[in-house]
TrEMBL record:
It comes from the Eukaryota. InterPro entries: Ub_conjugating_enzyme (IPR050113), UBC (IPR000608), UBQ-conjugating_enzyme/RWD (IPR016135). Pfam families: UQ_con. PANTHER family: UBIQUITIN-CONJUGATING ENZYME E2. Residues 15-113 form the UBC core domain. It comes from Leersia perrieri. Signal peptide: none annotated. This is UBC core domain-containing protein.
Amino acid sequence: MTSSSSPSRKALSKIACNRLQKELAEWQVNPPSGFKHKVTDNLQRWVIEVAGAAGTLYAGETYQLQVDFPEHYPMEAPQQRPADNDRYVRNCRNGRSPKETRWWFHDDKVIHI
């Protein structure tokens, strides 16, 4: 894996690169139940497949979550965006980033507040 990134993002610091390589190795040895890391050549952007929980209306569904790690990870939190990011951004209030978005979960419904 490399720390290649798009021109708009800064390259990972050495600390961030080492930390992400360690976390990815741990993930590959002991992955969280219901989550799968899609292998890419970009250490700075992870694409995670999330399986819908059994016994819910999401059972049998698979969702993708994109996690972008900043230059100074872990001192700065990663940003998480859904695969349909364009729709998310158009509907996001006040142009907030995902880190500033509050979510409320109730009865298998997600409400953006």
